[in-house]
Amino acid sequence: MLNKYARAFFTRVLTPFAAMLLRAGVSPDVVTLVGTCGVMAGALVFYPMGEFFWGTVVITLFVFSDLVDGNMARQLGRSSRWGAFLDSTLDRVADAAVFGGIALWYAGRGDSLLLCAVTIFCLASGQVVSYTKARGESIGLPVNVNGLVERAERLVITLVLAGLSGFETTFGVPHIGVLLPIALWAVAAGSAVTLGQRVVTVRREAAEVAQAEEQGRTA
């Protein structure tokens, strides 16, 4: 849902920056790699220490590379299968780093095994949600469904509320730290619903294809 509108807006905003990088001789693949490394650094350095505000600031700065690299490729007119594969693969790495950093906090100084488990569920379910679409498409199905909580929603909910929760330790705002657990429970529930939506859709589409093939054989 957010992908449809947010991408269109930020694509227009970031087009001049993408053009500047191209003029400087930077390739889209380099932007993809640097962006992923930046997200991983922000998540795995700051989050395990409980620095959710500054960690979110760093992650947000680098997460826009996901839009910049695609914009650069389109301006070059050479979008490739390799670029799409690299971008998609490193998206999964970045997502794992974000939730992995939060899980490390709760497994350590955050001292909550329950929230650590919820965070790990968010990590795993997000990966499986992405896999279901990729696997369905690989067997020739369109997987034509807009899930309740897809990657954009997972990141926005988690990063916004994690950043706000960081105001408690960084700026002394009381009680606002509760926003991070709220975000994790919301993402966990939404990811479970989205996974169910995709599984049901693939089952329906597979049955429709099988029925069409059967009718073709008997015609």
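The above is record 1. Record 2 follows with the same two-line structure.
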Amino acid sequence: MRVALMATCIGDTMFPDVAQATVRLLERLGVEVDVPPAQTCCGQPMINTGYFDEAEPVVRSYARTFADHEAVVLPSGSCAGSVRHQHGIIARRSGDADLVAAVDRHGPRAYELSEFLVDVLGMTDVGASFPHAVAYHPTCHSLRMLGVGDRPRRLLEAVRGLELVDLPQERECCGFGGTFAVKNADVSAAMGQDKAAHAVASGAEVLVAGDSSCLMQIGGILSRQGSGVRTMHLAEVLAATEEVPA
């Protein structure tokens, strides 16, 4: 099977290791991976703040870039949610029937990483090894917009040596929310501090999530506190093996 990887803006600029881990993981599972160089932002920052006209060229770019791929894998519930649910809003608003048709075609082909592994490849045991105590944070868009459910937990439970511990109040938002963190900085910081405290209380060595933006929010706080708890993307844990540890 051949798929495209959408590295995402934050992955490309700040967390390239996540995109690289996603490619290693998929290739280990026999998937051929393209990384189209023409890819840009998913458009979510503009859409969420009401800049619909500015988002339209971005949606058009996505439709062109990924038109010929049978599946697009995104290591981000946030970006996958935008492609699947928000692109249609922009396309219909444009009044361009061709763009609407393109979005209707490409939307169902966009998969958050855990969805692709479980639903498309039919796998929960991906041959990973990670001998650490891990808490999982279900990010807002993956939980509420995509409904990934227990797929990430099932993948983590199958990792050799991994101890999955409960995260107190795991369904609470980390407070990042993209532009929310800028417009409501004090509230965002308070929410992040609560999430960081829960991570420490869990007893986990590593806090894992499927969105780098959330990990940036929580990880920054944990680091400044000197908590000893580190953060990792789900892709990095699943890409780890006994031969190539994380």
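The mean pLDDT is 95.
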